[in-house]
Design a protein that fits this description.
two-stranded antiparallel sheet; two-stranded antiparallel ribbon; SWIM-type domain-containing protein; about 120 residues; alpha+beta
Length: about 120
């Protein structure tokens, strides 16, 4: 395991490797929480070589929680997916402005002071 990052088994020649001595204090509890079997290796080692980014991800509370959820649901661990914003209703081209999506009614504009009114054009 000397030339591989023990976390994701990637070559240490790529990326930014670091020799972790004091950081074992944070790697051990993360391994116990993840229940991934690396605790025996970490307890028997005085230092380990890992990538900086791998270590950050490995000890992150959010990624540990995601890892636990994936293990419970037996899904592979993947980066979080951000849902796209979608409209549930069909766009009405007569009322809202096509560009800013605000209501474009003359009656609503007449309630504003004249200098703040937007020009509403009827088709």
């Amino acid at each position: 395991m000397a030339d591989l990052c023990f976390i994701y088994n990637e070559s240490l020649s790529q990326g930014d490797p670091v020799n972790v001595v004091r950081g074992l204090k944070t790697l051990r509890p993360a391994s116990i929480e993840r229940n991934d079997g690396y605790i025996n290796f970490l307890n028997s080692s005085t230092s380990v070589n890992v990538h900086t980014e791998c270590r950050k991800v490995y000890i992150s509370k959010n990624y540990i929680a995601a890892s636990k959820r994936c293990i419970e649901n037996s899904e592979p661990l993947s980066p979080p997916i951000v849902p796209r914003k979608r409209r549930n209703e069909v766009f009405d081209f007569k009322k809202p402005c096509l560009f800013c999506d605000q209501v474009a009614e003359e009656a609503a504009e007449t309630k504003k002071k004249e200098k703040y009114r937007d020009e509403v054009q009827d088709q």
